[in-house]
Amino acid sequence: MPALADAQAEAATAPPGTVxxxxxxxxxxxxxxxxxLAEGAPMQVDSNGRIVPLSPEGGSLSERALLERLxxxxxxxxxxxxxxxxxxxxxDAAEKRIEERAATMAAMEAQIASxxxxxxxxxxxxxxxIVAMYETMKPKDAANxxxxxxxxxxxxxxxxxxxxxxxxxxxEMTSSRAQELTVRMAALADQxxxxxxxxxxxxxxxxxxx
Length: 210
Known about the structure:
Blueprint: H1 2-12, E1 19-20, H2 22-28, E2 43-45, E3 51-53, H3 56-59, H4 61-136, H5 139-148, H6 151-160, H7 163-172, H8 175-187, H9 198-203
Helix pairs in contact: 5-7
């Protein structure tokens, strides 16, 4: 088997681990000198200079390491993706809760505003009813009450009453009280008329009318 001896002699000069194409080696040797299973398979030179089939494990170490790194990286990316998905879900849930709370607060504010409007309308109606009762009284009787009424309350009442109804009452009031009321009304000429508080309403005498 001179061809095999020559091939082995040539391989002896090659560095250990050198990979040799099995097909090229088969072409140099007689077919009966080759292992059919090794024909066309990659070969390598071992530490003794012999030509042996390339070990699948030895030849794929770098590839296996690369695949392991890729698998680890893929696992890492999948874990990161799951974490991002979880964070996105938490953010969505938080935004939903904020929107629900905002809607609840808006509904409560609307309800409070409605109650305030109703209260103001009720107080305005009560005040208007009290003023109307004063307007139906005799000027002298109303003047006697106005002489003793708290000035802040009297200002609201007098400013709300019709000037035609207020004039005869003012004429029946004491001069000092009528003068003070006139000065205060002039100072409040630019102030809104509908600003009576519940305390002001409570200070008004509960007149049944005549």
